[in-house]
Structure prediction request, 191 residues.
Amino acid sequence: MNKNTIVLFDIDYTLFDTKSLKDIVYEKYFQDIEKALFLENLKNLSEETPLKKRIRECLWKEVGSHLLYPETLEIIEEFSKKVLVGIFSKGHQKFQREKIKSIKKFFEEENTHIFLDKISKLPEVLAKYLDKRIFIVDDSLEVLIEAKSINPKVMTILVDREGKNFENNFKPDIVIKNLKELEKHKIEIYA
Prediction:
């Protein structure tokens, strides 16, 4: 195993199908309200309103590893044999960990970074791995831009499952539609 390389994976929309979780919860529990209202209330769920409390409870009922993307287990298992793999994600610790419970054995605790404000913790996380080649796999262009501005040597990998065309001067080092496409870049990553 190459311990001089770390690949940090985001959870939502990268390893875990968050859109399906939201759709399931809406369809099973919230068809009595407009979907736009439901989606708006998904933002900042830590606020204490009756609707947000009910949404949180329903999300907990439905969250689980069954919503990992189909290729997640295979890719994480393979990569964990070749390089260090870690998590760099935004959200509540307990809830994010529940999403990846079935694959947590591949991630050492010291390489698992989950924060409510991911961007503000980016300098600290990147500083931890200054002695390594760092790859960040994320669906957020904002995170990748910030990572590159902090450390230009960071290799940025954008997961663009929806095929969005980002209007931005920033070009990630690699753009993929799903994790399976990382296989095309194994030589570069494993080096």
